[in-house]
Amino acid sequence: MTNTMQVSLVAADREVWSGEATVVNASTVEGEIGVMADHMPVLSVLAAGQVDVRTENDGHWVAAIDGGFLSVSNNHVKMICEHAEISFESNFDEAKRKLDAKVASEQ
Amino acid sequence: MKKITRAMELIAASRIIKAQQRAQQAAPYARELAKAVSAVATYSNVDHPLTTEPENPTRAAVLIVTSDRGLAGGYSSNALKEGERLNERLRSEGKTVSTYIAGRKGEAYYKFRQRPIVQAWTGFSDQPTYDDARQIGEALIEAFIAGTSADGEGGVDEVHLVYTQFKSMLVQDPVTVRMLPLEVVEGEEKPAADEVLPLYEFEPSAEQVLDELLPKYVDSRIFFALLQASASELAARQKAMKSATDNAEELIKKFTRIANQARQAGITQEISEIVGGVNALADATAGSE
After folding, report:
1. How far is A57 from chain B (nearest CA, A)?
2. Looking at the whole model, is its pTM more than 0.80?
3. d(C-alpha B223, C-alpha B209), whole Å
4. Tell me, what's the ipTM?
C-alpha cells in the first residue's frame, strides 16, 4: 500500500495542478473533509474557500477556490472548480487575492 | 489593402493557436464534470428537472453562436443557415421557437429581419471566458426550469445549441446539439473492465450533488461550444483573409501592368510628337533655303 495519491485541481479554463500528494484538506458545504491515500469513494460539493494539500517530500501548497466538487475514487482525488488560484508559498491571502482579481477581470 | 488583409490574416493565425490551446486547457474540466455526472447518474435513481423529458414538448429555445465581427468568410452565415434549418425542423414538429443569440453578427441578422430575439450576448466571440458561458447557461436553464413548472409561462421545453465545430484549420462545420433536457453523455469513454466505477458516497446527498453538478455541466458544455466557435471563427477569418490577400496581390499585379502600359503609351506618344515636330521644323528650314 502506498501512502500517496494522485491529486488534480482543475479549473474551468485549465488544469491548475496535478501530482502526487499525501493529504488533501478542503471545506465542503457540510464541513471540513480530509482525504488521505486509499480513502473511500466520495463525491461532494465544495464550498468557496481554501484547499490545503501536502505533497510528496514534505511539500505544501494552498489554493483559493470559488466552490466546486471533490471526487475521490481509485486513490485519485479530483477537485473541480470554476476558478482556482494556487499559492506554492502556502499563502492563502495571496491566492485569494489572485482569485478575486481573476473573477473581477472576467466580469 | 494587401497589407491590411495580410495583417488580419497573421493576427487570426496567431490567435487560432491561442484559441486551440484554450480549448485544450478547458478539456480536463469538461471531462471531469462529465465523469462526475455519469457517476451520479449511474449510482442514484434521482430524477432531476434538467434531465426529465417533458411529455409534450411544444416550445424550444435555440441558441446560435456567431461572431462579433465580419470579414470571416461564410462563418456567421453558415451558423445562421444551420439555425434556420433547425428552426424549420422544430416548426414542422409543431414547436414554437424562441431565439437566443451570441455574437453581434447573428443579432444584426435577426434585427434586420425584424425577428424577435429573446436575449443576445455580444462582445466575446473571439475570446470567450467561462463567465460568459455561465451567464448564457443561467439564462437558458432559467427558461427551461420555467418551462417545467406547472403553468410553464415563458419557459421552454427544449434547448438547442447551434455552433461551429472546429474540425481542422480547413474544415469547420456548423452543428446542432440538444442541450436540455440533458442526454446521456456523448463520447464518454466507458471505464475499462478493471476500473469499475466506484460506489460513491455522496455528500450532502445525491440530489444536492446533482443540483450543483448539472447546471455546471451545462455551463461547461456551452463554454466548450463557445471555445470551438471562437477557434472556428478565427480559422474562417484566416482563410478569408488569405484569399483576400491573394486577390489583392493579383489586383496589384494587374493594375501595375495597366499603369506601366499607360506610362509607356504616354512616353511613346511624347517621343512621336517630338520627332514629328523636329521633322516639321527640318522640312520648314529646308524649304526656306
Report:
1. 26
2. no
3. 21
4. 0.72
